[in-house]
Design goal:
Elements lengths: L14 H13 L3 H19 L8 H10 L1 H13 L4 H17 L2 H12 L9 H16 L3 H18 L2 H18 L4
Helix pairs in contact: 2-4, 2-5, 4-5, 5-6, 5-7, 6-7, 7-8, 7-9, 8-9
Length: 186
């Protein structure tokens, strides 16, 4: 992908029309497949944004995610009630920089915690390690150093088990930042 952000066409509808449409979808058994596709779309968008949230296109990508924050939140909520934890893990891992840059530290940390507690999310995967790293970085920004350290150390352990060299470096960097912020750098 070239990194260009295309402006989506946006439609607005009255809340009563939304509710009616939601009821019709639920009645037709189309609601769950639609929610799954919605979640998949916004996971893909957030993951596409990750490398673009720094650099010359960052402003456009942050704005794109900000315009869809309601959809991102909805996708995260559905991922918590859906059958799999993978979508929520991937979404939380991808949104770390967006939450940090926009000052949504508490929201990001809360959503990471909820996703990490979902059944199936305890498996020691790269997705889990990414969310632990995200939650640890957000906890550090909130000066909750004990929580940050615990989250980041678990992320580091998983990344070492998986041989994820780039992830190991990211976790070590965040652990170093937490030590400096706490005043434990030596």
């Amino acid at each position: 992908a070239s990194g260009e952000v295309s402006a989506p066409i946006r439609f607005r509808m009255l809340e009563t029309v939304q509710q009616y449409g939601h009821e019709r979808l639920a009645d037709s058994n189309e609601l769950e497949p639609l929610r799954r596709r919605h979640c998949e779309f916004f996971v893909a968008l957030a993951e596409e944004a990750v490398p673009n949230l720094m650099g010359r296109e960052q402003q456009a990508w942050h704005q794109r995610l900000a315009q869809d924050v309601g959809n991102l939140r909805s996708a995260l909520e559905w991922s918590l009630i859906g059958p799999s934890s993978r979508g929520g893990l991937r979404l939380c891992g991808a949104l770390q920089r967006f939450w940090w840059t926009r000052g949504h530290l508490s929201e990001g940390r809360q959503r990471c915690t909820r996703v990490l507690c979902k059944a199936g999310a305890e498996e020691r995967t790269l997705e889990r390690a990414n969310v632990l790293n995200a939650a640890g970085g957000l906890a550090n920004e909130q000066a909750d150093y004990p929580a940050a350290r615990a989250l980041l150390e678990e992320s580091l352990a998983i990344r070492r088990e998986l041989g994820d060299r780039f992830g190991i470096a990211a976790s070590l960097n965040n652990l170093g930042n937490a030590a400096v912020e706490k005043g434990d750098a030596s």
